[in-house]
Design brief:
mainly alpha; Alpha-Beta Plaits; 306 residues; 2 domains
């Protein structure tokens, strides 16, 4: 941030000021992200039985809001300077400074994104993507500054700044959209697909079907509740064993720690035509259909024969 403002005072470039202003957002957003990561790592307590992971979505919301606000202010200032231009100078020196800061931001952003995959942290991912976006805008800015230097067309500075401002607004919007979706418990279909694929590939014959599968994300953990249809003649001990097997299977295979809340449903005669239990003592008709577990079927609140 200090380097970019140094470049701005050196050049008086509106485009460089745009990049420097976004760096203020980086600092503020990262400060809030630091606190949110600390808070989300706290253990569950009586007031927060699901943990503190939801704060990550709020952190991303704050970061997205700050980014969008910065983009709006930058765009307005750029349009103003189109009508009231000012002199710019030392563009090559400014371009070198911006290039160096862009390289640093990209390396740091890449590191944060990779760590977000290890720790399954939305905050680290958002902050890393933000820094990488900042690096891309810096790269575009360097190209623009060099173009202005050789063409001597000074109004390109404001045009470039306005374009960067609009791109920053779009980046903020994407983060806001992601955070609101998480706060409203929007399903993560990529994770749902992964969990369902694991269950379908390794399903036991006694697991007749799974339906009403719903997901919630709390920081680094995924919470799933679903209905598992089992043979009605299983005693409570056997039902508990099968439910535990489902839980263990997903947590050993999925990339996200998952907490299951499984409601056990008894089978009914209408399930027989797709039940895989070859030695079922109460079968009313032979198996005639094999139903794959896919999201479209599993998320519905109904057994598969409906």
């Amino acid at each position: 941030m200090l380097a970019k403002f140094t470049a701005y005072f050196l050049t008086s470039s509106n485009a460089i000021l745009t990049d420097a202003a976004e760096s203020i957002v980086n600092v503020l957003a990262s400060s809030f992200a630091f606190y949110s990561i600390y808070l989300s790592a706290q253990p569950r307590d009586l007031n927060h039985p699901y943990g503190h992971g939801k704060v990550e979505f709020f952190s991303v919301f704050v970061e997205g809001s700050l980014i969008a606000l910065a983009g709006i202010l930058i765009t307005f200032k750029s349009v103003y300077n189109l009508f009231y231009p000012h002199e710019i100078q030392f563009l090559l020196s400014g371009a070198i400074i911006i290039a160096v800061t862009g390289i640093i931001n990209y390396i740091l952003g890449y590191y944060l994104v990779e760590k977000s995959k290890v720790y399954n942290s939305l905050t680290l991912f958002a902050d890393g993507k933000h820094l990488q976006t900042d690096a891309y805008t810096s790269a575009g800015l360097v190209v623009g500054l060099i173009l202005i230097y050789y063409t001597k067309i000074s109004y390109l500075d404001s045009v470039l700044s306005a374009c960067l401002g609009l791109f920053i607004i779009y980046t903020g919007y994407k983060l806001l959209r992601k955070s609101v979706g998480g706060l409203m418990d929007e399903s993560d279909f990529e994770l749902v697909d992964e969990v369902i694929t694991i269950l379908d590939d390794k399903r036991d014959d006694s697991w007749i079907d799974i339906h009403n599968l719903r997901t919630q994300r709390y920081g680094a953990e995924l919470h799933i509740d679903c209905h598992l249809t089992l043979p009605y003649y299983f005693d409570l001990t056997r039902v508990h064993e099968e439910v535990s097997r489902v839980d263990k299977l997903v947590n050993e295979s999925a990339r996200v720690p998952t907490e299951f809340f499984i409601h056990a449903d008894p089978c009914v005669p209408e399930c027989c035509h797709y039940c895989r239990m070859a030695d079922c003592p109460v079968r009313s008709e032979p198996k005639s259909l094999d139903i794959a577990w896919v999201p479209d079927k599993v998320i519905r609140n109904q057994k598969h024969f409906n």
